[in-house]
């Protein structure tokens, strides 16, 4: 069972409302607390209770269901008890699974067991589209390409009838909608090296879109169901040729068969895949001897190298396409840990861009397109609630130990074929660059127990299952924790935000980040020495501490505690925050490009004429710097921007661009919308943004504490250098 702290339950909303998360509510979710796990007990739900109100993040404060079928298999393995009590999704991968199959209980029995456990969150995968998974034979389904009628009447309708039973009204039910289907329409339905005739058929007949739309509409009508649509992973959709078309495809499906974008509570990435959560030593903005890592063989011009940045970037694009601004993302971390002997302990050599990338990357697959029973993979982050901005939870969608497909043909009555991508001797296809598959040998049919893989996942877990380091990795020799951060102080407070800064900790191998705790609960993490805690209650006292951590997982003692009290609400000040994204992944070209927006998290309108933002940077030269507004949702004519010298000696902050507003009022819960700014020198020489104070590598909008927001002359958001 997880020993991390439990999440904090949020109050619900009106019973039948779809997701409509305000900016203030969104920031309140970033609590960083692990999921509480249900264990068998005597508690049960009263069938006459009123349905629990829909909440913004169903994982916050929830006690999720532990699948006893999977748990028993895991516990029977040597060392398996370390993860046997972790919550995971239940897969409804064929019609027969609804009633139950030999060795696996049906949906009703799972739901009843969840009530017996005292759980209030249940996770289920909806996975039986006509012509399912048209590009991977191992996960083909039972329904033919034209059997959309059976999908609706024999599969979705019976599931919906069970989930709508009043006996389960107190359960928050998270439904993962149809892995791999819609992304295949984007990349594999014609015109690419990986295209298949089967995917072309599904694109032409529209049954993937119809099926997903029907599932969203039907399940979305059940007030305690939260739909999350599968959105592949960065190694599939991270290229600009796929990224926006995928978001558009998701929007099309979500408005088909009576569905609306309001039926989509969020999206999930990396379902049943192995893409690493975070690359600790590799960033998409890195370059080697003037060559960007995007040109390396591994990255291959992708715009992302890990799932966290991809999920956050995709979330912003989905909002731009018309999905709700409070959209939440899930990341499947069950099998993307990549620990063990081969995990890097630092950046790779700079002899070439390929040497640097291959030496730096934690993801050790032969090719990012390899997906079947990957050799060297490990258990990833354990399920945790709201770990990062925009992320509702890290979850285990594909339970560790369940095969992705057989390594050779095996007769079965489940409709699952043999895919050569599961054969370790296969030399690949256009979807994996004609590379070896990296699959483990002797694997069973998809979904069946694969003991050898389970043992390898345990051995290569990252973070390690015992909390220590991996053999041969940074944790074998490094057991020294960083020093405690010092000098914790508030740099600004408002009715809903406390901005903090502290003096950096030290460590024998280097500090990799800091965890911030409010009243004993982790509320967020940062790699800098500043953090803005938002979504707070006006006029309330809080206590903060900060812990440092290193690459081996060692954690420092807490800093000295700091008491901070938010100001009273109701005024026109102290309720604004700044969100930022970089529009330029190269830190060494001749422009600085960014997107900014201001969000009013308070209860009163704010006069925008009183608002100024400051983005601090160093121009790295003597030439004059010019600012330009390329686009703004409220119109560039309403935005002022001036570059000024800061007059101080803080590193990376000799200048700042000050952004203001000519007029206007920002209503409670509203945002200005994006403001796209660009800076360049008069001689168009290059900047070096790598050490600029306010720069971040986030490509999706996130709260940014290193951009200051001033109301008049008072700093009410962020930390000045």
Automatic annotation (TrEMBL):
Residue span(s) of domain Fibronectin type-III: 484-569
Keywords: Carbohydrate metabolism, Cellulose degradation, Disulfide bond, Glycosidase, Hydrolase, Polysaccharide degradation, Signal
EC code: 3.2.1.-
Skewed-composition ranges (Low complexity): 1-11
Active-site feature positions: 133, 180
An MF annotation (GO) of this entry: hydrolase activity
Highest taxon above the source species: Bacteria
CBM3 domain residues: 572-721
SUPFAM superfamilies: Carbohydrate-binding domain (SSF49384), Fibronectin type III (SSF49265), Glycosyl hydrolases family 6, cellulases (SSF51989)
Region (Disordered), start-end ranges: 1-20, 461-492
Signal peptide location: 1-38
InterPro entries reported for this sequence: Beta_cellobiohydrolase, Beta_cellobiohydrolase_sf, CBM2/CBM3_carb-bd_dom_sf, CBM3, CBM3_sf, FN3_dom, FN3_sf, Glyco_hydro_6_CS
Pfam short name (any one): fn3
Family: Belongs to the glycosyl hydrolase family 6.
Protein name: Glucanase
Naturally occurring in which organism (per UniProt): Streptomyces albidoflavus
Native organism taxonomy: Bacteria, Bacillati, Actinomycetota, Actinomycetes, Kitasatosporales
